[in-house]
Amino acid sequence: KAGVTQTPRYLIKTRGQQVTLSCSPISGHRSVSWYQQTPGQGLQFLFEYFSETQRNKGNFPGRFSGRQFSNSRSEMNVSTLELGDSALYLCASSEQTYEQYFGPGTRLTVT
Amino acid sequence: GIQVEQSPPDLILQEGANSTLRCNFSDSVNNLQWFHQNPWGQLINLFYIPSGTKQNGRLSATTVATERYSLLYISSSQTTDSGVYFCAVQPSGGGADGLTFGKGTHLIIQP
User: For residue A105, which residues of chain B lie inside 8 Å, CB to CB?
Assistant: First the structure.
Protein backbone atom coordinates (compact mmCIF):
# COMPACT_ATOMS: atom_id res chain seq x y z
CA LYS A 1 0.00 0.00 0.00
CA ALA A 2 1.12 3.53 -0.64
CA GLY A 3 1.96 5.56 2.44
CA VAL A 4 0.47 8.80 3.68
CA THR A 5 1.05 11.64 1.25
CA GLN A 6 1.03 15.36 1.96
CA THR A 7 1.04 18.32 -0.38
CA PRO A 8 2.66 20.70 -0.78
CA ARG A 9 5.95 19.71 0.87
CA TYR A 10 7.16 23.29 1.29
CA LEU A 11 5.27 26.54 1.45
CA ILE A 12 6.16 30.17 2.06
CA LYS A 13 3.40 32.59 3.00
CA THR A 14 3.12 36.14 4.27
CA ARG A 15 1.60 37.18 7.59
CA GLY A 16 -2.14 37.66 7.30
CA GLN A 17 -2.59 35.23 4.42
CA GLN A 18 -4.32 31.87 4.70
CA VAL A 19 -3.05 28.45 3.72
CA THR A 20 -4.54 25.05 2.94
CA LEU A 21 -2.59 21.82 3.37
CA SER A 22 -3.67 18.46 2.03
CA CYS A 23 -3.26 14.90 3.29
CA SER A 24 -4.14 11.60 1.63
CA PRO A 25 -4.24 8.68 4.09
CA ILE A 26 -3.23 5.09 3.53
CA SER A 27 -5.89 3.30 1.53
CA GLY A 28 -8.57 1.94 3.86
CA HIS A 29 -7.67 4.21 6.78
CA ARG A 30 -10.58 6.35 7.87
CA SER A 31 -8.92 8.32 10.67
CA VAL A 32 -6.70 11.30 9.85
CA SER A 33 -4.93 13.35 12.50
CA TRP A 34 -2.91 16.55 12.17
CA TYR A 35 0.08 17.64 14.26
CA GLN A 36 2.23 20.74 14.44
CA GLN A 37 5.96 20.55 15.19
CA THR A 38 7.94 23.60 16.26
CA PRO A 39 11.35 23.84 17.97
CA GLY A 40 9.82 25.49 21.00
CA GLN A 41 6.65 23.46 21.56
CA GLY A 42 7.62 20.14 20.02
CA LEU A 43 4.96 17.94 18.47
CA GLN A 44 1.39 18.96 19.32
CA PHE A 45 -1.95 17.44 18.33
CA LEU A 46 -4.20 19.72 16.24
CA PHE A 47 -7.28 17.63 15.43
CA GLU A 48 -8.55 14.28 14.25
CA TYR A 49 -11.15 13.42 11.66
CA PHE A 50 -12.97 10.14 11.28
CA SER A 51 -15.58 9.45 8.59
CA GLU A 52 -15.80 13.16 7.71
CA THR A 53 -16.42 14.24 11.32
CA GLN A 54 -14.03 16.04 13.62
CA ARG A 55 -13.72 13.68 16.52
CA ASN A 56 -11.07 15.36 18.66
CA LYS A 57 -9.41 18.74 18.82
CA GLY A 58 -6.23 19.96 20.47
CA ASN A 59 -5.63 23.28 22.14
CA PHE A 60 -5.24 25.56 19.12
CA PRO A 61 -7.08 28.76 18.20
CA GLY A 62 -10.02 28.80 15.83
CA ARG A 63 -7.75 30.01 13.00
CA PHE A 64 -6.81 26.36 12.61
CA SER A 65 -9.53 24.30 10.99
CA GLY A 66 -9.87 21.18 8.94
CA ARG A 67 -12.18 18.90 7.08
CA GLN A 68 -12.32 15.40 5.71
CA PHE A 69 -13.84 14.25 2.47
CA SER A 70 -15.78 11.09 1.70
CA ASN A 71 -12.63 9.45 0.28
CA SER A 72 -10.89 10.12 3.66
CA ARG A 73 -8.58 12.76 2.22
CA SER A 74 -8.21 15.66 4.62
CA GLU A 75 -7.32 19.31 4.43
CA MET A 76 -6.32 21.72 7.12
CA ASN A 77 -6.60 25.46 6.83
CA VAL A 78 -4.86 28.20 8.77
CA SER A 79 -6.30 31.67 8.39
CA THR A 80 -4.70 35.01 9.19
CA LEU A 81 -1.22 33.51 9.40
CA GLU A 82 1.15 34.62 12.14
CA LEU A 83 4.92 34.27 12.29
CA GLY A 84 4.48 31.67 15.04
CA ASP A 85 2.59 29.41 12.67
CA SER A 86 5.87 28.59 10.94
CA ALA A 87 6.21 24.89 11.57
CA LEU A 88 6.30 21.39 10.19
CA TYR A 89 2.73 20.14 9.81
CA LEU A 90 2.40 16.38 9.96
CA CYS A 91 -0.57 14.26 9.03
CA ALA A 92 -1.13 10.73 10.29
CA SER A 93 -3.63 8.06 9.35
CA SER A 94 -4.85 5.00 11.19
CA GLU A 95 -7.49 2.32 10.97
CA GLN A 96 -8.77 3.13 14.43
CA THR A 97 -7.23 5.81 16.62
CA TYR A 98 -4.40 3.51 17.56
CA GLU A 99 -1.26 2.85 15.57
CA GLN A 100 -0.69 5.96 13.50
CA TYR A 101 1.37 6.29 10.32
CA PHE A 102 2.79 9.66 9.41
CA GLY A 103 3.30 11.44 6.13
CA PRO A 104 6.44 13.37 5.16
CA GLY A 105 5.02 16.69 6.37
CA THR A 106 4.53 20.16 4.98
CA ARG A 107 7.09 22.73 6.04
CA LEU A 108 5.36 26.12 6.31
CA THR A 109 7.34 29.33 6.59
CA VAL A 110 5.50 32.56 7.39
CA THR A 111 7.36 35.78 6.62
CA GLY B 1 -3.51 15.86 30.24
CA ILE B 2 -1.11 12.98 30.16
CA GLN B 3 2.59 13.78 30.63
CA VAL B 4 5.41 12.07 28.72
CA GLU B 5 9.05 12.34 29.75
CA GLN B 6 11.92 10.96 27.72
CA SER B 7 15.48 10.44 28.87
CA PRO B 8 18.22 11.13 28.20
CA PRO B 9 17.57 14.25 26.09
CA ASP B 10 20.89 13.80 24.26
CA LEU B 11 23.10 10.79 23.74
CA ILE B 12 26.40 10.56 21.90
CA LEU B 13 27.83 7.09 21.24
CA GLN B 14 30.45 5.39 19.14
CA GLU B 15 29.44 3.10 16.33
CA GLY B 16 28.86 -0.41 17.64
CA ALA B 17 27.69 0.67 21.10
CA ASN B 18 24.35 -0.25 22.64
CA SER B 19 21.86 2.24 24.01
CA THR B 20 18.69 2.37 26.08
CA LEU B 21 16.13 5.15 25.72
CA ARG B 22 13.44 5.60 28.33
CA CYS B 23 9.89 6.94 28.21
CA ASN B 24 7.85 7.59 31.36
CA PHE B 25 4.16 8.45 31.17
CA SER B 26 1.79 9.70 33.82
CA ASP B 27 -1.41 7.75 33.15
CA SER B 28 -2.62 4.47 31.74
CA VAL B 29 -2.43 4.25 27.95
CA ASN B 30 -3.99 2.26 25.15
CA ASN B 31 -1.45 3.36 22.59
CA LEU B 32 2.30 3.79 22.85
CA GLN B 33 4.46 4.23 19.80
CA TRP B 34 8.17 4.79 19.23
CA PHE B 35 9.26 6.83 16.22
CA HIS B 36 12.53 7.82 14.59
CA GLN B 37 12.42 11.21 12.93
CA ASN B 38 14.61 11.32 9.85
CA PRO B 39 16.59 14.44 8.80
CA TRP B 40 13.75 15.48 6.48
CA GLY B 41 11.24 15.44 9.31
CA GLN B 42 9.27 12.29 8.59
CA LEU B 43 8.34 10.15 11.57
CA ILE B 44 9.24 6.53 10.92
CA ASN B 45 7.27 3.95 12.90
CA LEU B 46 9.51 1.74 15.02
CA PHE B 47 7.11 0.02 17.40
CA TYR B 48 3.46 0.05 18.39
CA ILE B 49 3.81 -1.29 21.93
CA PRO B 50 1.19 -0.36 24.57
CA SER B 51 2.42 -3.36 26.58
CA GLY B 52 4.87 -6.24 26.32
CA THR B 53 8.08 -6.71 24.37
CA LYS B 54 8.83 -6.61 20.65
CA GLN B 55 11.97 -6.97 18.58
CA ASN B 56 12.83 -5.89 15.06
CA GLY B 57 16.39 -6.58 14.05
CA ARG B 58 18.79 -4.54 16.18
CA LEU B 59 15.92 -2.70 17.84
CA SER B 60 13.69 -3.91 20.62
CA ALA B 61 11.20 -2.30 22.96
CA THR B 62 9.53 -3.12 26.24
CA THR B 63 6.55 -1.42 27.84
CA VAL B 64 5.65 -2.08 31.47
CA ALA B 65 2.17 -0.58 31.49
CA THR B 66 1.57 -1.14 35.21
CA GLU B 67 4.68 0.91 36.03
CA ARG B 68 4.08 3.45 33.25
CA TYR B 69 7.32 3.28 31.35
CA SER B 70 8.72 2.01 28.09
CA LEU B 71 12.28 1.31 26.98
CA LEU B 72 13.75 1.31 23.49
CA TYR B 73 16.97 -0.67 23.02
CA ILE B 74 19.33 -0.14 20.12
CA SER B 75 22.14 -2.65 19.79
CA SER B 76 25.30 -2.44 17.66
CA SER B 77 24.54 1.19 16.73
CA GLN B 78 25.23 2.42 13.21
CA THR B 79 25.67 6.01 12.02
CA THR B 80 22.32 5.72 10.25
CA ASP B 81 20.66 5.31 13.67
CA SER B 82 21.40 8.97 14.38
CA GLY B 83 18.42 11.25 14.75
CA VAL B 84 15.64 12.03 17.18
CA TYR B 85 13.62 9.26 18.80
CA PHE B 86 10.15 10.06 20.04
CA CYS B 87 7.83 8.22 22.35
CA ALA B 88 4.13 9.04 21.93
CA VAL B 89 1.11 7.87 23.89
CA GLN B 90 -2.66 8.05 23.95
CA PRO B 91 -4.43 7.75 27.29
CA SER B 92 -6.90 4.95 27.91
CA GLY B 93 -10.53 5.92 27.55
CA GLY B 94 -11.00 6.57 23.87
CA GLY B 95 -7.84 8.28 22.65
CA ALA B 96 -9.54 11.62 23.00
CA ASP B 97 -6.52 13.85 22.61
CA GLY B 98 -4.52 12.30 19.82
CA LEU B 99 -0.94 11.27 20.44
CA THR B 100 0.98 13.12 23.16
CA PHE B 101 4.69 13.20 22.36
CA GLY B 102 7.71 13.41 24.59
CA LYS B 103 10.43 15.93 23.78
CA GLY B 104 12.55 13.21 22.23
CA THR B 105 16.04 11.81 22.62
CA HIS B 106 18.60 13.22 20.20
CA LEU B 107 20.97 10.36 19.38
CA ILE B 108 24.29 10.91 17.64
CA ILE B 109 26.31 7.88 16.53
CA GLN B 110 29.90 8.75 15.71
CA PRO B 111 31.96 6.60 13.30
Answer: 40-42
